[in-house]
Design brief:
Elements: H1 4-19, H2 24-43, E1 47-48, E2 56-58, E3 61-63, H3 65-90, H4 93-97, H5 100-114, H6 118-141, H7 148-151, H8 154-178, H9 180-185, H10 188-196, E4 202-206, H11 218-222, E5 239-240, E6 245-247, H12 259-267, E7 278-282, E8 285-286, E9 299-300
Antiparallel strand pairs: 1-2, 2-3, 4-7, 5-6, 6-8, 7-9
Helix pairs in contact: 1-5, 1-12, 2-6, 5-6, 5-8, 6-8
The chain binds iron/sulfur cluster (2 copies).
């Protein structure tokens, strides 16, 4: 049985699913892009450290183990630099849209949300298993040439299969038991990002001034990391920088996943002409007046 908070989340996600989620396909596309990148780097021999055959690669050339290791460290450094810069602007956007581990957190919920019949549940399980298998195979291909499964000794083959199965068991537990608990409190990258994204100018904006919020709390219930996006725009959290721009103290833990926005949109789906107060977009705007700061206007991205 799901914990109460997760049961609430699944209930809201199911309601969103019935009214046609807008972000689902976009998220699948972005996660597929991340996965393709993970596969492409070792497959194109940009970096591979082959612990089985000793064929190490860097930028398309065979190199020594030490050189490949250095290349790996540089690649990780570049990745860190890119995510650091993108997080300064978009906050933990990567966590919500590009992180394969974050996507695995959703797979168990997908079975609850979309598996209305036995057949559909099987389909969701198969799709989830395929995603986890592809992700783990991609990760392993950075460290061992997949040809080990054909040309390797029995010991090498079985070690590779054993490592894959052990990782798959971890993936299963993550999808069905740990879910967003990992993203919320254990992911070292996420914990680090909280410190560097507290003033990211793109995120969840709550239009309190419109008075459109009906306080249904669907946005809170659906949030995978237990946030209340309605508080992101609280007057007490306003701040003014040296250029006289008004900011909302956007919550640094927000994954920018947009689930709350989808939930809010679902509430207003049949209320023609009324704009949902939650949006995923720019949070800064240049104030025309010097003071006092008023409610910022959110702009959709
Ligand atoms: S989902 Fe929208 S209407 Fe409901 S409480 Fe949240 S912001 Fe208000
Ligand atoms: S506040 Fe909204 S966008 Fe942020 S993590 Fe929660 S549901 Fe996702």
């Amino acid at each position: 049985m799901l914990p109460l908070r997760d049961a609430d989340r699944v209930k809201v996600l199911s309601a969103v699913d019935r009214t046609g989620p807008r972000y689902r396909l976009r998220r699948i596309a972005s996660i597929t892009g991340s996965l393709a990148l993970l596969v492409a780097v070792p497959a194109l021999h940009l970096v591979r450290i082959d612990v089985w055959g000793g064929e190490h690669w860097l930028l398309g050339e065979r190199v020594s183990f030490i050189t490949a290791l250095k290349g790996f460290m540089v690649a990780m450094g570049c990745l860190y630099g890119i995510t650091f810069l993108t997080n300064m602007i978009f906050g933990r956007f990567f966590c919500g849209w590009g992180c394969p581990v974050g996507h695995v957190s959703r797979l168990g919920e997908e079975v609850s949300v979309r598996g209305k019949t036995r057949g559909k549940r099987v389909v969701q399980h198969v799709l989830g298993a395929l995603f986890v298998a592809s992700f783990l195979a991609a990760i392993m291909s950075w460290w061992v040439d997949p040809r080990v499964l054909i040309d390797g000794s029995a010991a090498a083959r079985w070690s590779t299969v054993g490592a894959f199965l052990a990782l798959s068991a971890g993936g299963f537990c993550h999808a069905f038991f740990w879910q967003f608990t990992f993203c919320r409190s254990a992911c070292p990258v996420g914990i680090y990002y909280r410190f560097v994204t507290s003033r990211a100018p793109v995120g969840i904006a709550f239009d309190k001034a419109s008075g459109n919020c009906v306080n249904c709390r669907s946005c809170e219930k659906v949030c995978p990391v237990d946030l209340d996006p309605k508080t992101f725009g609280d007057a007490t959290a306003f701040d003014v920088d040296a250029q006289n721009r008004v900011s909302r103290n956007n919550d640094a833990e927000c994954l920018r996943c947009g689930d709350c926005v989808e939930a809010c949109r679902m509430i207003f789906a049949k209320k023609k002409g009324i704009l949902p107060p939650l949006r995923l977009g720019r949070i800064f705007r240049r104030e025309r007046k010097a003071s006092p700061p008023q409610q910022p206007t959110a702009m959709d991205v």
